[in-house]
Amino acid sequence: MTILEALLLGLIQGITAFIPVSSSGHLAIIENLLHINSETALPYEAFVHLAMLVAVIGALRREIKKLLMEFCRSIYDIYGNIKIYFHNRDKKDARRYKKIVSNNYRKLFLLLVIASFPSVLEEWFLQGMAKLAGENLLAPGMGLFVTGIVLLVADFFPRGKKIPRDISYSAALVIGIIQGFTVIPGVSRLGITLAVCLAYGFQRKFAVKYAFLLAVPVFIGNFITECVHMGSVSFGWQIWGGYAAGALAAGITAYFCIRKVAKILQNKRFYGFSVYCFLIGTAAVAGSFYLA
């Protein structure tokens, strides 16, 4: 992979990661067209996912800070309830326990944790199939068709009003399970997650925030997986420098795209993204037969 290829892939990753058009599908198509070896791309992908993780945390730092603060407070409240339990038992008293899930941010933290477990596990087990699917143009093209159809259907869902306090834990589990299957190139993680959230009646603004925050455990899982599989891969400093440049391009682009894209997704219909997926998917499928 040359520096120019790394920069190109980084820019595409940064732009498409938080748009419901499947960044993995775009990357698979470009890698096939440029004949980029997947083994040499593995260290690059680890760099990129680390950069994307930093970009998400930076762009959503206020929300993440509130989530972590409420998590720490909930741990303190659990500790307080344990003390109350022993006090009531020893003193034959009836002090009231503190409510642990007492606000929307504490509920949101639990919803994110519940959705993350099946999603990360599925991606771990399906990564071999995803890698195989990304070695041709047909699979990403078909995946983009799936994304386009889902986005088109999602536009017909009625506007929901549910915020964290209204969401069931079973809904978060289903969202996580479905999100896990989006490891297949062309199937947009963001697009599918948003569609399922809207189907459950999520308030659109909350659905976008929830889908973006779910990217954090996904990027962490991807980074760890890629580091494990890299093993003893060794390249010269020039190649590592190219990977770092591409990752930097991805991270910077993603950071500036997140906020702007969030506003678009909160207020606009998905029709335009759906049409785009159909067009790119058609081109990819046609290309797979032409290049066969």
Automatic annotation (TrEMBL):
Keywords: Antibiotic resistance, Cell membrane, Cell shape, Cell wall biogenesis/degradation, Hydrolase, Membrane, Peptidoglycan synthesis, Transmembrane, Transmembrane helix
Reaction catalyzed: di-trans,octa-cis-undecaprenyl diphosphate + H2O = di-trans,octa-cis-undecaprenyl phosphate + phosphate + H(+)
GO molecular function per UniProt: undecaprenyl-diphosphatase activity
Similarity comment: Belongs to the UppP family.
Extra facts: Bacitracin is thought to be involved in the inhibition of peptidoglycan synthesis by sequestering undecaprenyl diphosphate, thereby reducing the pool of lipid carrier available.
Annotated function: Catalyzes the dephosphorylation of undecaprenyl diphosphate (UPP). Confers resistance to bacitracin.
Protein name: Undecaprenyl-diphosphatase
Species name: Candidatus Blautia avicola
